Amino acid sequence: MSARVAVVGGATSGLGAASARVLADSGHDLLLWSRDAGRLAAAAEQLAAPGRTVRTVVADAGDPDAAAVVAEAALDAFGRVDVLVLNAGGPPVARADEVTADGLRAAFQLLAVTPVDLTTRLLPGMRERGFGRVLAVLSSGVREPIDTLAYSNTGRSALVAWLKTLARTVAAEGVTVNGVVPGRIATPRVASLDASAAERQGTDVEDVRRRSEAAIPAGRYGRPEELAALVGFLASDVAGYITGTTTAVDGGALRGLP
Ligand SMILES: NC(=O)c1ccc[n+]([C@@H]2O[C@H](COP(=O)([O-])OP(=O)(O)OC[C@H]3O[C@@H](n4cnc5c(N)ncnc54)[C@H](OP(=O)(O)O)[C@@H]3O)[C@@H](O)[C@H]2O)c1
């Protein structure tokens, strides 16, 4: 069989980059996408290896055309997609009482409409071939809403509801649909959230991180590769009976029963 093909969003940094690395190492060809051509070229170069094809496409998940652009690029390059990692940047910080209608529309495009649209475009081939893996990078806010991330809590919860519904719809066709739930994984996004918390609280970023880590039973932030390991496992053949789940990678931070 030829190599499986994985499409990875937000693949130039943090969780997306680590997921792309794991999928490359487990034999996938890759289409990487995000907003910056230069960063994409650098990411593709890092993943290049003999016998592996890595392509890139520029798209902004906040743009209504993004899903069409990415799906077309993937099918043009490879003619198939087996693994779809739904991931891009997060929405702006906002408390619930700061949410606006325009802001909510933008967050829904970024967090729900584009991922649903992209999945819908790539799903028919997965169903026909009897194999597919849809994996969404979510946030702990879908389990325990985060006060300062109202857009994220709201938009991602809609996506989780759709993914859970989809999982049941395609379960008999070899396509699994799962979410991974990062707690606090050390990436540029988390560094910028910590910086904005420090500014809001009138303290420094090290102080924010120290307090944040103290609230995590494992006593530290996670590493991107610790989340990517789960992505790699869920994308594999042996995970074929796991679907409709969301699994936290959070050092024990979430308090609720799963
Ligand atoms: N790290 C965590 O602990 C954590 C926790 C909860 C949720 N999350 C969520 O997980 C996702 C990945 O986070 P991360 O920590 O890996 O962030 P990151 O290190 O900042 O990486 C974000 C990636 O997404 C790309 N991106 C940003 N905005 C985009 C857009 N509108 N369209 C397409 N690509 C876009 C970025 O590249 P360009 O900027 O060049 O486009 C980059 O490749 C985010 O949605 C984040 O909110 C992360």
From TrEMBL:
SUPFAM superfamilies: NAD(P)-binding Rossmann-fold domains
Entry GO MF terms: 3-oxoacyl-[acyl-carrier-protein] reductase (NADPH) activity
Keyword line: Oxidoreductase
The keyword Oxidoreductase appears for this protein: yes
Pfam hit, one: adh_short_C2
Keyword Oxidoreductase (UniProt): yes
Highest taxon in the source lineage: Bacteria
E.C. code: 1.1.1.100
Family listed: Belongs to the short-chain dehydrogenases/reductases (SDR) family.
Name the record gives this protein: 3-oxoacyl-[acyl-carrier protein] reductase
